[in-house]
Amino acid sequence: MFANLFSLLKYRGLIQTLVARDLKARYRGSVLGFFWSFFNPLLLMAVYTFVFTVIMPGAHPADIQPYGLFFFCGILPWTWFSSSLTESANVLISGGNLIKKVLFPAEVLPIVSVLANLAHFMLGLPILAALLIYYQRPLDPLELLWFPVIIVVQFFFTTGLAFVLAALTVHFRDIKDILANLLTLWFFSTPIIYPMQMAPENYRWVLNLNPMTHLAISYQEVLFHVGPHGHWKWLLALGAGSIVVFLAGYFVFDRLRDSFAEEV
């Protein structure tokens, strides 16, 4: 397994090419093209901001202001996470013509899905920076050093799950439908549209079992809140767990790879 994993370094050029192809194909034929990477999160933020500030103004604490910025700090990484898993679940099936080639490394495809959505996440950061400037939210340079750490932790966690989903969906096509409903539940179980302190104390332990809870809070603390970073222990623990998820996911993928060509 580890030999195959380390051999991925030889396919850096292939991964870059496939990521570029994915990004170009995603908005091919659309008028706005890559600008949808900016508009999609903005439109989503506008909808939720309208609901929770106009329709339900008392649905979040008064100190969470501006609510739209708070929401954007969580929805941007969530979109990267959920889109990566959704696409990875179908990536081997849609790329069947590639994995039937003897020398093609099938594990490249889930990685490409995660990296392509990471690119869209990065394209959303200029909008986030503009909002921070507009709302005059200062960033602590020391806290900002945690930002790449959070991204790396999320990358390994997401890629590990992507390996498992890609491998299992080849054999169980129902996983795609189950995943759509699971992601909806997962979204509302993550403090993105609400802060963690709004959750009932008796049930916070359930949210603490959710890895995305700690990623969302870490993003919010670095980008939204002013003050010392208090979630770093959770983040480092999740980082260690993400490595385990990554290796376990690749193990499952590596064990099932011989059956992919027949099933797709």
Walk me through this protein's architecture.
- Helix content is 72%, strand content 0%.
- It is mostly helical and 264 residues long.
- The chain has one domain.
- Helix 3 (36-55) packs across helix 4 and helix 4 runs parallel beside helix 8.
- The longest helix has 28 residues, at 67-94.
Helix-strand pattern, N to C?
HHHHHHHHHHHHH
Q: What is the number of helices?
A: 13
The stretches of 5 or more residues where confidence is low (pLDDT under 50) are none
Strand content: under 5%
CA radius of gyration is: 19 Å
User: What structural class do helix, strand and pairing data support?
Assistant: mainly alpha
Number of strands: 0
How many domain units? 1
Shape: globular
Average pLDDT metric: 84
For the biggest sheet, the summary is: none
First-last Cα distance: 22 Å
Give the fraction of residues assigned to helices.
Answer: over 70%
